[in-house]
Write a structure and sequence with these properties.
Elements: H1 17-27, E1 34-37, E2 45-46, E3 50-51, E4 61-62, E5 66-69, E6 83-91, E7 105-109, E8 121-124, E9 153-156, E10 166-167, E11 178-180, H2 188-196, E12 201-205, E13 209-215, E14 219-220, E15 231-232, H3 235-246, E16 249-256, H4 260-270, E17 276-280, H5 290-295, E18 307-312, E19 315-316, E20 320-326, E21 331-336, H6 340-359, E22 368-373, E23 379-380, E24 386-394, E25 397-400, H7 409-412, E26 417-421, E27 427-428, E28 433-438
Parallel strand pairs: 6-7, 13-16, 13-17, 14-15, 17-21, 19-24, 22-25
Antiparallel strand pairs: 1-12, 2-12, 3-11, 4-10, 5-7, 5-8, 6-9, 18-20, 20-21, 22-28, 23-27, 24-25, 24-26, 26-28
Helix pairs in contact: 1-6, 3-6
Length: 440
């Protein structure tokens, strides 16, 4: 099923990082679009442009609580010589039947209320006596407490230019404008815009459903007591969280013991809710590497085209990898190494791009930059391997955290970048410019 040629042939063939990723992305296709309610579409990717059906705001409205006035009636107004206007009533948000403001008149108006006919500007209530006949006020009294405030007279202490404190019809977006482009990921602000222009549903690619499971009889659920030779299962938690961070709906499956039949039946049971399956552990060359045992010949009894290919990659950490499809729907499966750092680095390099491809995004990769290495001594790297070291990036410089060991998970919690040492470099002196993958 491979689309790229391996780096070498024979039992010890090595695939490059780029070849393996190319093979994965060639087999993963964006999910089919569906129509979803707005809140259900959060985190999904638009598949079509959205056009504005009605201008926003749909009418001229006040941006302040105050009084709607004619400009000529408040020219030269001051606290010493206020403009005295007759109040003809209230204009509230949502009001359809509007008062007309004539010469020498004003209407109390609330934020968001339509500008009444005849009015040209809004003066904030703080520029007036609020109809109380005294000095400037700090706000309006509630209508229920002072219904008489909607009539009588108001003294205006400052002049106002035309359209002052008025939000013009279409000043946000106009009817016929493109509100959002296809390919946009819908976050809270995009959902708000869709709701504001009256869209109740939207056509999107759904968030991929990713099933994550760890393998290993030594793994114990966090919160339980450790027995002899046991460790806590951190990989499934890390990768489930990483899948959610990438935009997926992720399901974590409890650790599966080192039994090939149990593993295979567990995976088959999970296919009903999976667009992508991720396993961690059991892909190396040990006697108990059950993922290889369970899935190496899975295509023999599945439909044609299925099968998992296990490979060695020219990278550190993360040399052993597996990829293919499984089940009647040819669900993609990525089998990652079991060491914590190896599995996380492998996720960033291979699983995250696969998830983003399923979402229908064009840019599926983490951002990268060039940075100056700051370290106490030179970094060493195995010849012919692309090494990924944890690092902290700031202001164009990157420093390594932790060692090169693939089990050193504590340093991973403090890293916000991966330092990339290329295949042709066996030593990187302090001051060397290196590629950096930004994780934050």
């Amino acid at each position: 099923m491979s689309s790229a040629a391996p780096h070498a042939t024979g039992q010890d063939q090595l695939w490059s990082v780029d070849e393996h990723l190319e093979d994965i992305l060639a087999a993963v296709r964006p999910l089919e679009p569906i129509e979803l309610q707005l809140l259900d579409a959060q985190g999904c990717v638009l598949v079509e442009d959205v056009t504005v059906p009605v201008s926003l705001p749909p009418f001229d409205n006040s941006s302040m609580d105050g009084y709607a006035v004619r400009v000529a009636d408040v020219v030269g107004a001051s606290e010493e010589f206020p403009a005295v206007l007759d109040v003809v009533g209230d204009v509230a948000a949502g009001q359809a039947d509007l008062l007309r403001v004539g010469p020498g008149q004003a209407a109390r108006i609330m934020t968001g209320a339509p500008l009444p006919p005849g009015a040209e500007a809004v003066v904030p209530v703080e520029w007036t006596d609020g109809g109380l006949g005294e000095g400037p006020v700090s706000g309006m009294r509630a209508r229920s407490l002072a219904p008489e405030g909607a009539s009588g007279q108001v003294r205006v202490h400052r002049s106002a230019e035309a359209r002052a404190h008025v939000r013009a019809e279409g000043s946000d977006v106009k009817a016929g404008d493109r509100a959002l482009e296809a390919g946009t990921v819908l976050g809270p602000s995009q959902i708000a815009l869709l709701a504001a222009i009256g869209r109740g549903t939207v056509r999107v690619r759904p968030r991929p459903r990713v099933v994550v499971m760890s393998t290993g009889s030594e793994l114990v659920q966090p919160g339980e007591e450790l027995g002899g030779g046991q460790i806590y299962d951190s990989n499934s938690f890390a990768l489930t969280a990483a899948a959610r961070d990438a935009g997926a709906i992720a399901y974590r499956v409890g650790a599966v013991a080192d039994d090939a039949e149990t593993l295979r039946s567990t995976i088959e049971d999970q296919l009903v809710r999976a667009d992508l399956v991720v396993t961690t552990g059991g892909v190396s060359v040990g006697a108990y590497d059950v993922v290889k045992e369970a899935l190496s010949h899975v295509g023999d009894e599945d439909e044609a085209g299925s099968g998992i290919d296990f490979r060695k990659l020219a990278m550190q950490p993360g040399k052993p990898q597996g990829f293919g499809t499984i089940g009647p729907d040819h669900t993609p499966l990525l089998a990652l190494p079991g060491n914590p750092v190896s599995s996380y680095v492998s996720f960033e390099l291979f699983v995250r791009p696969a998830i983003r491809t399923l979402m229908g995004l064009e840019d599926v990769h983490r951002p990268t930059t060039r940075a100056t290495l700051t370290a106490d001594k030179a970094l060493t790297s195995p010849k012919g391997r692309r090494q990924f070291l944890r690092g902290v990036y700031a202001d164009g410089a990157v420093r390594p955290v932790g060692g090169a060991g693939s089990h050193l998970v504590a340093a991973l919690a403090h890293a916000d970048a991966l330092i990339v040492v290329p295949e042709d470099m066996t030593s990187a002196e302090p001051g060397t410019q290196l590629e950096v993958v930004l994780l934050g």
